[in-house]
Protein 1
Amino acid sequence: MKTLRLIVTKDCNRDCSGCCNNYYNINELPIISNYEHYDEIIITGGEPMLYPHLIEDIILDIKKINPNCGIILYTAYDFLTIINSGIIGFLDGLTITLHTQKDADNFVRSEYYCITPIEYRLNVVRGIKLHNNPILKQFYIKEIKWIKECPLPLHETFGRIDFNKYKK
């Protein structure tokens, strides 16, 4: 499987000490505009959900070139905001990272159930406790820790979009 990890924005509403973006210059990553050779594209950032309409435009562009490509969104945004944005209808997978105990507490208070048939993953930073909630049954849950310099898996390509093409 050939995977592209695609940075769609440098902007983020957090300042995480272990953030992968601290280890490289995003502007030095290659701009990717041809998606036809990928089986899967992971949309990430910064925080992609700061610009849900931009994400929709990018996904539509990807699907024009490669309609069979799986699209997965990596985000740390509030789950209810993600649901209300409608972006889930464009995705094949959603990975939410819970960085703080407050993130986890807000997440498990959610009354929303995932009705769109996509793969749901929850990355939980080590040490954060999840309180029981039926919503958790819909997610594959993985405990994570910050990894220095964030090495990219061997089967992945790392690139970015042309930020100026999508800024409105």
Protein 2
Amino acid sequence: GRKIKIMKKVLYTNGDSYTFGDELSNPRKSAWPYKLGSKLNCNKVINHGASGGSNQRIFRTTVEWILKYIDEGGVTENLIVVIGWTNPDRMEFRGDAKFKKTLNNASDKYDDENLKFTPDTHKIYTSIIPSLSKNRFSEIHEFYMRYLYDREYCLDTTASYMYHIQKFLKSHNIKHLFFMSFNDFTYEMNNYNISLWNFIDKKQFIGEYTMDKYVIDNNIKLGTKYHPLEDGHIKWTKILLEKLDGI
């Protein structure tokens, strides 16, 4: 008889340390992407969250992964995308290992199985703001903050990433949901009158609270570096399920 093609349900997630699962004893099991994937009965979960990651990195890696997924015959109707946007101040910087060490010797954490950095190994993608923040009295940090940093520009670019990813997802009929990890930028988007913000579909965006505000408001314990622990990820998974159900 004729073979029936089995459609695999895939959950793709991206974000910062709140998505990666910082401070969890087993991020690949306890972080919300895996808990959500299990609740949605997904055959595969991709977690592209990276500690200290920027919205620029989220935009780049999300589009790259989805285009590859489509190119390899992935069915977009079976794909669900959830993105936890981070602090708009963060920027992605591609420099050599020596410069990264000058900024911050700590390694960026990410899921080795799912996220590969550039094969051009003498160049490394790193997020410049968290790196500089750990060395905030350095000459580089002072120069950046004095001459290059601009909050309105950071908000403008974040709105652009969100708008274009949403348009891209809708054009491929991909079910999706956005939220903010820890920096509530909705008020500032309106206050600065960021034009593209007005064109983002808010029905697919949790704008009432950030992940960390929800956790704190519900008296859920945070880790020593202020990341939600397992109970926080369990509770947040319930919120995401409810919101996805309404889309």
